[in-house]
What does this fold into?
Amino acid sequence: MRDDEATAEVAKNDVAPVPLRRRKAHIRETNGAHLLACAEAVFAERGLEGASTAMIAERAGLPKANLHYYFPTKLALYRRVLEDLFEDWHRVADTFESSDDPVEAIGGYVRTKMELSRLRLLGSKVWASEIIHGAVHMQDILNEHVKPWLETRVIVIDNWIARGLLAPVDAQTLMFMIWATTQHYADFDARIRALKGKRALSQKAFDTFT
It folds into this structure.
């Protein structure tokens, strides 16, 4: 084989697997996301102790072995669900940076938090349950990420108060109340539906609550 032919053959071999690798990567990403969504639902319904990887695999319509290919243990999968929820909430937190006007900044934050409660209702229940049970599996998330972010928001709110843009209020308490109120519509949706006589909370209902 001539040098130019050998070079062409090597180049072909280097290029040919790329589409296959991309397809495999896409399949892995799709299956991983599907498993996370199913795990979120099962953990919301059963809790960490009551859930099993067999239940999650059955919900996902995949063999249990496939689940363990992506997540070696139930705890690893549970932890990934918590991390995924935090990543969504952390993105929502960016809306607090959108304006130096407290009405716009806080209003935008509340609206996006309410929308996330609507879209990830089951995830919010998983998060709340973990907190209620002592946050054993996400202390690092709270200490290393949530706490520093909250401290920066307290500084911003105190600055608004000092400038006369916001009535005097304990900034931490204000943030706790926003979290409690917005996540209430996800965590306690069964009570809200029962009291309002509805089978499900619609987009219109969430808009009204917001």
The chain is about 80% helix and 0% strand. Confidence is low (pLDDT under 50) at residues 1-13.
